[in-house]
Specification:
single chain; about 240 residues; alpha/beta; five-stranded mixed β-barrel; 8 helices
Length: about 240
C-alpha cells in the first residue's frame, strides 16, 4: 500500500485510465470492464481493476488540480509500477470555433503552476506528453474513424478568476482549452521516465457559454472512454 492508495502490490494494472471524479471511475469500470475488483477506496477515491478485451486495466480517480493528480499519479508510477497513465477528463474550450463534445489529445500542457519546478526542478511553463501513448491515441482514433483534435491545453491552478479573458500563458502557447491536471501528470511521468497522455472532452465553450447538461455529461464522455480503452490495447503490447 502507498500513503493514499490502499491497493496491494499487483492489484493495479500497468495501464491506468484516470478521470477526476471517483464516481466517474466507478461508472467507467462498471460499464466497460469485466471481472472488476475494487482495489482501493481510501478517502472514497475509487480504483477498480478489470479486463477490457482481455487486457488488464485499472480505472482510478485523480481528484481535482495539480496537487491531487500529482499525489495519485506519482504513487501509481513509483509504488505500483504503473507504466502508463491516460488522464480522461473534461475541459473548457477557449475558442468560439470549439464545439461541445470535441475530443482533444493533449500535445503540450502549459501552466502557471509551480508544481514541476518545486517538485523536480523542471523549469518552464510547458511540458509535453510523455512516451508513445499520444501517437497511439492518434492512430487509434483514425482506425476508429473518430474525430480527434491534437493540440496544446492550459492546466490552470485557478478555477474562479476575477480577471476576464484568456490568461497570458494560454495565449502565448495557443492553448485550445483549459483543465487542471495534465501539467502535473506530465511532470511526474517525465521525472520518473513513464508514459502519460491526456484525453479531454469539451464540456463547455467559455466564450459562447455553451455547456453539456449534467444529465448528458456521462453519456457524452463515452467516445473518449472508448478511445482510451482501445488505445490501451495497443499500449499493452509495448510491455
Amino acid at each position: 500500500m502507498s500513503v493514499h492508495i490502499s491497493a496491494q502490490k499487483g492489484d493495479i494494472a500497468p495501464i491506468v485510465l484516470m478521470p477526476g471524479d471517483p464516481l466517474r471511475a466507478k461508472y467507467i469500470a462498471e460499464n466497460n470492464l469485466s471481472d472488476i475488483q475494487l482495489v482501493s477506496q481510501t478517502r472514497n477515491v475509487f480504483y477498480y481493476t478489470g479486463l477490457y478485451k482481455g487486457i488488464r486495466v485499472t480505472i482510478g480517480a485523480s481528484g481535482m488540480g495539480c496537487p491531487s493528480i500529482g499525489i495519485y499519479s506519482y504513487e501509481l508510477y513509483n509504488e505500483y509500477d504503473v507504466d502508463c497513465i491516460i488522464r480522461i477528463g473534461t475541459a473548457g474550450g477557449y475558442l468560439e470555433s470549439t464545439n461541445l463534445y470535441d475530443l482533444i489529445n493533449t500535445d503540450i500542457a502549459c501552466s502557471e503552476s509551480t508544481y514541476a519546478k518545486y517538485a523536480f526542478g523542471i523549469d518552464g511553463e510547458t511540458i509535453m506528453h510523455q512516451g508513445p501513448a499520444y501517437d497511439i491515441i492518434n492512430t487509434t482514433s483514425a482506425n476508429l474513424n473518430m474525430p480527434l483534435i491534437s493540440g496544446n491545453i492550459h492546466s490552470s491552478d485557478i478555477f474562479y478568476r476575477s480577471i476576464p479573458g484568456v490568461p497570458k500563458v494560454a495565449q502565448d502557447h495557443n492553448c485550445l482549452a483549459v483543465e487542471m491536471e495534465a501539467f502535473a501528470l506530465f511532470a511526474n511521468a517525465q521525472h520518473l521516465g513513464k508514459m502519460a497522455a491526456t484525453l479531454l472532452t469539451i464540456s463547455d465553450v467559455i466564450p459562447t457559454h455553451q455547456q453539456i447538461s449534467a444529465d448528458a455529461r456521462e453519456r457524452s464522455l463515452n467516445p473518449m472512454i472508448e478511445l482510451a480503452l482501445e488505445s490501451a490495447i495497443s499500449i499493452n503490447k509495448l510491455f
